């Protein structure tokens, strides 16, 4: 079934696309002919080719589409903004001298009505209650925690927001994430796995699609918002069971959205929940666009449609829309949230939410709940409801084809014709109304639209102004596909007409979406194959002679470590066995259900080896992780004391804090503390731009700050161009699939970060692993893979990508970059280097391992880095050639769909980089870099002298020393904390099971006295626990007296 549009519209739309693609292919054909006869040397290489003779990075249908279609209208996307996303905002004017291929900014600014941002309740503007509290949190906690939640990034604000979110949405518990897009893409793989079934709405968001693909589960799609078809799919899949084996599914999860972001349509939640209950399927609800925006008290579609939140098993939402902040959350049962906190990579490895962003969300929710002492929250909710329904009604009366339902603040207007997309956008902008046009790949190729987003901050005069302009431009462009409704038309008739049009549109979109299902099934098979390859990451540990293993440590240590784990796992399995026996004989009704089971009779969410490890091992030591922090991550910080009354299963906070030496955070240059240059500028940016852009970079989230930082990053790392992403973890996990896909080869270091492993698995490329930091084995692997080609077909690889890290985060070891680059050049493989822990921290001017090891940055094709460590902020970047960066800006989902970096976080990086470069007028940057180098080398040298087995290289601020024994990790951590030194123990799954360690991170903000204090405590505790596995250097003084002598 197709959307019923006028015949002429359908014909002209198809004809327009036919012309564009036909002439585009002709131009490419004649270009290839001319190049063959006249430019054989490659003087006129087409877009996407590489003059070095490498396989092209940018190729395929997407590259053709962007070169021949998108560039014609790219001025309609990513317009630079010079202020906060309020009802009216300042848009920077641009021009092009090369047929829209390159856009140049001018000094001219137009004040436009903002109908494009997701600032639904107006909190992204200056707010009398929120803004002062956010500024105060910035002063108290800084712009970044410079750490993950399980290390030193768990502030009291994060804990408060989790509790507040759970209370707000009506669920027992919640977990936070630093980026809304990642909340879906990282959580879904943590909930389901191979042997499970995901049933997804055909129009679900791209983040849900990517999360489903990355999970390894079987994915099936039901027709958009069609409970009857959902029931049909469930019945068929339950009857058929798992592919090939036909075993019952481990678990089934149905994923829907509260308000569909491209349709503005409300989910038929009551009917879908009824179907899920009938077939014992879990319900996962994405409320990114509905939480805070609909419902009497802003609690989303559950409140609006009268659904009990207890009937929705997993509730997801973002803070980037209604709350004017950044990040996302998952709300569910305490068991599920506890499970996610222990196994979700984006929680374990990613830097936690920026404290000012956390405070913004807390303050906004309190205003909505009326806890600010006013009724402004209720007024905002009433205002957005009235504004949305008024605007929708008027658009329908004018004859526009408007999708969606009443109460929804999202209202798409269908455009269809490719020539009308830029025409509508440009003409609206000329009349000072900024709208968002949506085209492929965000929607199917033939279903382009303009998407209007309404805010509570819009006055009635604003809306009337917008309607007048849209009506005039609609007449001019010719997109009023429906006849103008007369006033005598009843509201019931109008609603039926709207529902009919929306249903037809949905059916067409569903059919277009279903075409990709065979490709998804093939992708899941590829993931199964690649996952077996990626498992070699841990297996290689036994092959690399440079890594610590049971064979290289004293015999007694190896035996006691294995014996300790044997006791833990042996008695753990015995306890589970006897528990099952007792339950079978005495508690058949489930009154004593074990961890992970569901009293409703559903398949358990929390099962498997990870669940056993968490219950029987991690809970014994969980007090050593996620310690709440009550201040900024400076050289010394305040740690909140906790206690447990149930054998460490539940931890309770006290009002007492301990001032501890911070040897845990990644605050390498000390910028995460109050800084005389950075902090005032960050506060000023917060006042000017607010805490969030409430939009993606391609819509209304591309501020002048973002553009300035991209240019500054490119200059700093000495690459032609750069792209920003809002989360460091997502920079790897989202960029790698945008660079390489099926038919490509990824060769990854055995000890690369989890974000790299996740991105490689999601790409669909073949994955091979080389022994850690071993260029000889890399060359052997490249030679073998190039000789054999792709699996089964033996065709040549489309492209080859070698991925390494500058400083390995769990080893503190520098990459052997010169040798690896030499191998990559020899075999024409691209080099991708992750500089998360090295950029800013090493090198004479802080430019990372390239500067430290004397490597030309031009020899590294793709350079990745995070901004959450040396620069005291959040987010990440990719720096590469202009062609690669342009390709990523047009194809990377987390750039297209994810909300852009928080403006204060952007300003923090800009200011920190300027200090490092000396552009603040001082030499403080040079002193910081010299200080961290001196501190790191001094601390490493003294640890080695004491007899600790320290990993890594000189100049690296990351220095792990081995613990091995599972009983010694918590003992060491607790005793250090008791003596006011905070360290991070690292165990499984961050490291292999038998290779537990303590990871020390050094900062330029540490004084020599701080380091001596830390060495003294570590030495004392090391003697007490017994982890000095190497012989101490012979001196007249003992290891205990040595720090005193140093002082």
- The CATH class of the domain at 129-373: Alpha Beta
**Count of beta strands:** 30
Side by side, the strands of the main sheet go: 5-11-10-9-8-6-7
CATH homology group of the domain at 129-373: Type I PLP-dependent aspartate aminotransferase-like (Major domain)
Level of helix content? 40-55%
Work out the strand percent.
Answer: 5-15%
Keywords: Endoplasmic reticulum, Lipid metabolism, Membrane, Pyridoxal phosphate, Sphingolipid metabolism, Transferase, Transmembrane, Transmembrane helix
Cofactor: pyridoxal 5'-phosphate
InterPro entries: Aminotrans_II_pyridoxalP_BS (IPR001917), Aminotransferase_I/II_large (IPR004839), AON_synthase_class-II (IPR050087), PyrdxlP-dep_Trfase (IPR015424), PyrdxlP-dep_Trfase_major (IPR015421), PyrdxlP-dep_Trfase_small (IPR015422)
Catalytic activity: L-serine + hexadecanoyl-CoA + H(+) = 3-oxosphinganine + CO2 + CoA
Topology:
Blueprint: H1 7-38, H2 61-68, E1 80-81, E2 88-95, E3 104-114, H3 130-141, E4 154-155, H4 156-169, E5 173-177, H5 180-191, E6 197-201, H6 206-215, E7 218-222, H7 227-240, E8 252-257, H8 269-278, E9 282-286, H9 301-305, E10 314-318, E11 328-332, H10 334-343, H11 345-348, H12 355-369, H13 376-398, E12 410-414, H14 420-430, E13 433-434, E14 436-438, E15 449-453, H15 460-477, H16 491-514, H17 517-534, H18 536-539, H19 555-586, H20 609-621, E16 628-629, E17 636-643, E18 652-662, H21 678-689, E19 702-703, H22 704-717, E20 721-725, H23 728-739, E21 745-749, H24 754-763, E22 766-770, H25 775-788, E23 800-805, H26 817-826, E24 830-834, H27 849-853, E25 862-866, E26 876-880, H28 882-891, H29 893-896, H30 903-916, H31 924-946, E27 958-964, H32 968-978, E28 981-982, E29 984-986, E30 996-1001, H33 1008-1025, H34 1042-1046
Helix pairs in contact: 3-12, 3-21, 4-12, 5-6, 7-8, 12-13, 13-15, 14-15, 19-20, 21-30, 22-30, 23-24, 25-26, 30-31, 31-33, 32-33
């Amino acid at each position: 079934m197709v959307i019923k549009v006028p015949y002429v519209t359908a014909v002209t739309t198809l004809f327009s696309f036919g012309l564009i693609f036909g002439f585009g292919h002709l131009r490419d054909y004649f270009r290839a002919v001319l190049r063959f006869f006249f430019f054989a040397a490659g003087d006129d290489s087409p877009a996407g080719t590489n003059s070095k003779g490498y396989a092209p990075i940018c190729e395929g249908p997407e590259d053709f589409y962007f070169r021949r279609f998108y560039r014609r209208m790219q001025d309609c996307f990513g317009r630079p903004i010079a202020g906060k996303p309020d009802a009216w905002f300042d848009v920077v004017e641009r021009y092009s001298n090369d047929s829209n291929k390159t856009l140049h900014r001018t000094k001219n600014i137009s004040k436009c009505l903002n109908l494009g941002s997701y600032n639904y309740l107006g909190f992204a503007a200056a707010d009398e209650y929120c803004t002062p509290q956010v500024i105060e949190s910035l002063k108290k906690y800084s712009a970044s925690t410079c750490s993950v939640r399980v290390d030193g990034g768990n502030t009291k604000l994060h804990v408060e927001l989790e509790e507040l979110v759970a209370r707000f949405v009506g669920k027992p518990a919640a977990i936070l994430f630093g980026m809304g897009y990642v909340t879906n893409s990282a959580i879904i793989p943590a909930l389901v796995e191979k042997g499970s079934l995901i049933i997804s709405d055909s129009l679900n968001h791209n983040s849900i699609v990517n999360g489903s693909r990355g999970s390894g589960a079987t994915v099936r799609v039901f027709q958009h918002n069609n409970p009857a078809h959902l029931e049909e799919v469930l019945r068929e899949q339950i009857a058929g069971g798992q592919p090939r084996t036909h075993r019952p599914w481990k678990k089934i999860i149905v994923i829907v959205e509260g308000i569909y972001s491209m349709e503005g349509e409300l989910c038929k939640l009551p009917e879908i929940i009824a179907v899920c209950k009938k077939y014992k399927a879990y319900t996962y609800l994405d409320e990114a666009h509905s939480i805070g925006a609909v419902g009497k008290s802003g609690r989303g579609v559950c409140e609006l449609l009268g659904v009990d939140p207890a009937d929705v098993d997993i509730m997801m939402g973002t803070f980037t829309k209604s709350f004017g902040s950044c990040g996302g959350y998952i709300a569910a049962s305490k068991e599920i949230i506890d499970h996610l906190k222990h196994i979700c990579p984006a929680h374990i490895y990613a830097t936690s939410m920026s404290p000012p962003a956390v405070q913004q969300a807390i303050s906004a929710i309190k205003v909505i709940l009326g806890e600010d002492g006013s009724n402004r929250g209720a007024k905002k909710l009433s205002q957005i409801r009235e504004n949305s329904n008024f605007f929708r009604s008027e658009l329908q009366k004018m004859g526009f084809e408007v999708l969606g339902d009443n109460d929804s603040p999202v209202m798409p207007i269908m455009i269809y014709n490719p020539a009308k997309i830029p025409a509508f956008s440009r003409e609206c902008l000329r009349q000072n109304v900024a709208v968002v046009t949506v085209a492929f790949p965000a929607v199917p190729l033939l279903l382009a639209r303009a998407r209007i987003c309404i805010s509570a901050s819009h006055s009635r005069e604003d809306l009337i102004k917008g309607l007048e302009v849209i009506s005039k431009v609609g007449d001019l462009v010719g997109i009023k596909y429906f006849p103008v409704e007369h006033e005598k038309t009843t509201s019931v008739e109008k609603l039926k007409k709207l529902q009919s049009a929306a249903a037809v549109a949905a059916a067409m979109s569903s059919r277009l979406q279903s075409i990709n299902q065979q490709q998804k099934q093939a992708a899941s098979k590829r993931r199964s194959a690649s996952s077996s390859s990626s498992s070699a990451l841990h297996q290689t540990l036994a092959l690399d002679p440079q890594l610590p293993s049971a064979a290289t440590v004293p015999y007694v240590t190896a035996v006691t470590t294995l014996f300790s784990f044997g006791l833990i796992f042996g008695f753990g399995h015995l306890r589970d066995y006897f528990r099952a026996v007792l339950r079978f004989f005495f508690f058949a009704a489930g009154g004593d259900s074990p961890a992970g089971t569901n009293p409703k009779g559903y398949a358990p969410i929390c099962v498997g080896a990870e669940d056993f490890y968490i219950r029987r091992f991690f809970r014994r030591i969980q007090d050593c992780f996620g310690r709440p922090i009550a201040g900024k991550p400076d050289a010394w910080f305040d740690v909140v004391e906790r206690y447990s009354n149930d054998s460490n299963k539940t931890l309770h906070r006290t009002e007492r804090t301990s001032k501890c030496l911070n040897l845990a955070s990644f605050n390498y240059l000390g910028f995460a503390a109050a800084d005389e240059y950075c902090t005032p500028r960050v506060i000023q940016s917060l006042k000017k731009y607010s805490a969030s852009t409430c939009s993606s970079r391609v819509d209304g989230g591309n501020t002048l700050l973002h553009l300035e930082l991209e240019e500054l990053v490119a200059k700093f790392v000495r690459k032609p161009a750069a792209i920003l992403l809002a989360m460091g973890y997502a920079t790897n996990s989202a960029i790698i699939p945008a660079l390489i896909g099926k038919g490509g080869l990824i060769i990854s270091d055995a000890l690369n970060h989890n974000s790299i492993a996740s991105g490689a698995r999601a790409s669909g490329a073949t994955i091979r692993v080389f022994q850690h930091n071993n260029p000889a084995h890399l060359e052997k692997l490249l030679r073998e893979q190039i000789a054999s080609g792709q699996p089964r077909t033996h065709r040549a690889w489309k492209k080859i990508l070698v991925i390494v890290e500058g400083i390995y985060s769990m080893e503190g070891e520098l990459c052997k970059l010169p040798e690896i680059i030499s191998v990559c050049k020899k075999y024409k493989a691209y080099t991708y280097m992750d500089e998360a822990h090295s950029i800013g921290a090493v090198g004479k001017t802080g430019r990372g391992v390239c500067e430290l090891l004397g490597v030309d940055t031009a020899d590294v094709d793709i350079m990745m880095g995070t901004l959450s460590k040396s620069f005291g902020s959040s987010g990440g970047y990719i720096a590469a050639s202009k062609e690669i960066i342009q390709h990523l800006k047009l194809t990377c989902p987390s750039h297209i769909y994810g909300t852009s970096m928080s403006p204060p976080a952007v300003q923090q990086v800009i200011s920190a980089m300027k200090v490092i470069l000396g552009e603040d007028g001082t030499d403080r940057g040079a002193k910081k870099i010299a200080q961290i180098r001196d501190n790191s080398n001094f601390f490493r040298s003294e640890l080695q002298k004491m007899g600790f087995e320290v990993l890594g290289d000189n100049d690296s601020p990351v220095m792990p020393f081995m613990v091995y024994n599972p009983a010694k990790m918590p003992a060491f951590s607790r005793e250090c904390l008791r003596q006011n030194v905070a360290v991070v123990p690292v165990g499984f799954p961050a490291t292999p099971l038998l290779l537990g360690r303590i990871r020390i991170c050094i900062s330029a903000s540490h004084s020599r006295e701080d380091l001596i204090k830390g060495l003294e405590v570590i030495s004392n505790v090391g003697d007490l626990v017994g982890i000095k596995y190497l012989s101490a250097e012979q001196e007249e003084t003992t290891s205990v007296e040595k720090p005193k002598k140093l002082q």
